[in-house]
Amino acid sequence: MAEWDLRKLRILRTLRERGTVTATAEALHMTPSAVSQQLTNLAAQLGVPLLEAHGRRVRLTDAARLVLAHTEPVFEQLERADAALAAYAHGEAGEVRVGAFPTAVPALVVPAVRALRATHPRVTVRVREAEAAEAYDLLAAGEVDLALSLAAEAPSAADPRFTHVPLLADPLDVALPRDHPLASAPGLTLTDLAAESWIFGGSGPWSDITRRACEAAGFSPHQGHSASGWTAILAMVEAGMGVALVPRTAAGRGAGVVLRELGADRPVRHVVAAVRRGAADAPATARVLQALRHAAAPAPEG
Asked: How buried is 148 (Cβ within 10 angstroms: 0-12 exposed, 13-18 middle, 19+ buried)?
């Protein structure tokens, strides 16, 4: 197989465009003798004559024109590669793999992706749903580039592997059956619900969050039913089987469910994004983080 040298091929291409060795040398900031030497070397590498005398000048041989006809698509593809790399370097293109816990996907990731489609359509986001703690395992293993999780599940801030970016303090509202005696009670607090049957997961972050919130209010919740999905939890609340704490970003509710705010001392869960240390400034990742921050920002009033 012939030895292809792109630098020398560019010189040959420029000679075709400029017509003379002198003009080629000026265009490429070379000396005429250097141009001639490079083209002589290229002819030797390819094993065919590339130039022939034409009066006091030289012109391309048929072999040279054949070579250029076949290398033109290569130059075109290299131009595309240059453009793609420039876009990537400026955060205008690239792929970012995001691992996110279930409620973060519709509440934060989907709005961020929609915004990026409008502003940076060549930034691609690939989403992988994962439980809050699992997201960090995926990040550490290099299977995702960015993890959305709960601060309660995050490794220590001193962990040298990750950089954390706070995104959202997500308030917890209480879900009650619409016909519950306290559904419309003014100034509702968690303490008012100490005697209720509570619905939450048997283990994991939501069990811990519910227990901690109730214990901070002065009681230990009685777990009437165990469920981890919001569809199941809210369906049981609607059926009058108990009450539950629901993050505001979990949104959906049944027609027979009332969500009540719990006042200034309401419990919250803190949502954070994490990247591997040093990766936050990668252009495409920075674009996704910016879109997530915007999605997490409170909507303007008015």
From this structure: buried
The continuous run of DSSP H or E covering 176 comes out as: strand 162-177
pLDDT reported for residue 226 = 92
As given in the structure block, the two tokens for residue 125 are: 């986001």
3-state secondary structure of 23: helix
- Provide the pairing of β-strand 268-276 with 162-177: antiparallel
φ, ψ (nearest 5 deg) of residue 21: -65, -40
Rounded to 5°, angle at Cα 190 from 187 and 196: 115
Task: Write the CB contacts of 106 (distance below 8 Å, at least 6 apart in sequence).
Answer: 251
Residue 87 corresponds to which tokens in the numbers above?
């876009």
Q: Alpha carbon of 168 to those of 104, 242, 297: distances in Å?
A: 10, 28, 7
* pLDDT for 55 beyond 80: no
Nearest Cα neighbor of 210 from 196, 258, 183 is 196
